Amino acid sequence: MLILINTLLDTPATCFGDQVLGHWKVEISQFKTPQNDRVDCDANFTTKKVKYFELRAPNVAIDEDGFYGTWTMGYIQAIQVRLGGLDYMWYFNYTETPLPEIKQIRVNTYCTQHLPTQAWVHEEGVAAPKHACIRATNVKPLLDNTTNETLKPAPGPVNDYFEVDGRQYQLIPIKLQKKVEYGRKKAPNEQPHASIYSGDTLPKNFDWRNVDGKSYVPSPFDQKKCACCYACATSYMMMSRYMVSLNTTEHPTFSVQHLLDCNEYSQGCEGGFGEHVGRFVEDHGILTEKDYGVYDGVQKECHAKDLQNAGRYYFTATQPLGGYYGAITDPVEMQWELFRYGPFAVSVEADLGYFDSFDPYGFDNSISLTDNNENRHYFYDEINHLVLLVGWVTEEITRNDVTKNETFWIIQNSWGKTWGPQKDGSMKIAMGYNSYGIESGPITTYYRPQGAFRPNIPVNIYKTTIVLGVMTGIFVIASVLFAVLLFQRKKKTVYEVE
């Protein structure tokens, strides 16, 4: 029952990568500096500017002026676009219809529309840049099918098969998920532990909780009955990466309550995503427990406006490993990121069968593609919980009379210090099988001790040249006039002396 309470809920929206491609129109309100670490939007705001851009596969965005940037899905519920010096984000619109006869709710998600009041844009950069509210509409979608019907709380579409861009896909309900069999895939430890980027070598065992007798991971957190695993795992990733970056085992204790109360990009105790926590921290910085307050397990009113002079810690590039959701599932790439930069957050499907019995193999819940098209960018794995990846271990395992080496991820959960088979807040998950979807959605972030930084927004070079030319001309004319006046003054002075 604990897992049901603590798993990630979020919005019930369901959209897929192919369904958001096309030409988007974005209406933008007046840009303002946020107050109290929040940007609360009115659906009836006055439009001050309109932008148009196209989203292409897999993560390319191009605006009407020819500037290009990137975009990523926020799982299946939101989207983020970085383009032309601006950072857009919105949740997808949906409606709910009660079905009392089956005790469920029908959810219709509209992948061409934003969710009212849940759509924002801000200037790119760190430390409270100016924000605005937006309305986002896909005015020319690439696909005809951009609406999905699902049942709540059941995952996935109502129909077993759904079609995207002329291709059929099948979601695997939890009841049909297949157990990961021992030795089903080639284990990563059988691959060379050597980097394709440098001459370094990965160790067979590595754990940030014990590096030469030192721990770079805070003690396990207990989120209690609040579904805020997304805030716990992300803040712990930030504390760990702070320590790794500065090569210290001392760290400020970041306030999960600050993230819970003030972050408009998440749903408080009803769920959220680590990437959106990172977006909030880029905007405002994260406060410590000493300044903001300790965790209460309940979302409260944000009081950050009273703490403007408190110390804030900034992190940047909180995003899926590889830059966009679905880009990276290679476990060796994940190992290198972990080894070089410190613990990071990963998503899992915390089901009530394998996970709560600490089965390291679990199941592979990847979507199956019926036409075997390997060139697709479509990507989806069912996940509902965010945890912290802290290391890996290689062990000799014997199962079914077969002995071999197997490598396991080590995760630290946020369900208390005594959770897990070793009663230390952690468990092992087999590497290279995508067990519980652990290799489907890793996210990273990087500590920025320099503090605030905002890149130069692209400017029109022709306008810039004209402005500089006019300013130069004014300077030349002023210089000539000054020289003439000075010459006249000298002539008068000479005459008076004579």
From TrEMBL:
**Which SUPFAM superfamilies would you find in this protein's record?**
Cysteine proteinases (SSF54001), Dipeptidyl peptidase I (cathepsin C), exclusion domain (SSF75001)
Q: What GO MF annotations does this protein's record show?
A: cysteine-type peptidase activity
Q: Is the keyword Nucleotide-binding assigned to this protein?
A: no
Q: Which PANTHER family match?
A: CYSTEINE PROTEASE FAMILY C1-RELATED
Instruction: Name the species this protein comes from.
Output: Hexamita inflata
Name assigned to this protein: Dipeptidyl-peptidase I
Q: Which residue windows are transmembrane per the record?
A: 466-487
Q: Which InterPro entries match?
A: CathepsinC_exc, CathepsinC_exc_dom_sf, Papain-like_cys_pep_sf, Peptidase_C1A, Peptidase_C1A_C
Q: Keywords assigned by UniProt?
A: Membrane, Transmembrane, Transmembrane helix
Q: Which residues form the Peptidase C1A papain C-terminal domain?
A: 202-446
Q: Which domain of life is it from?
A: Eukaryota
Does Transmembrane helix show up as a keyword for this record? yes
Q: Name what cofactor the protein needs.
A: chloride
Lineage of producing organism: Eukaryota, Metamonada, Diplomonadida, Hexamitidae, Hexamitinae
Give the matching Pfam families.
Answer: CathepsinC_exc, Peptidase_C1
Q: Name one GO biological process term.
A: proteolysis
Family of this protein: Belongs to the peptidase C1 family.
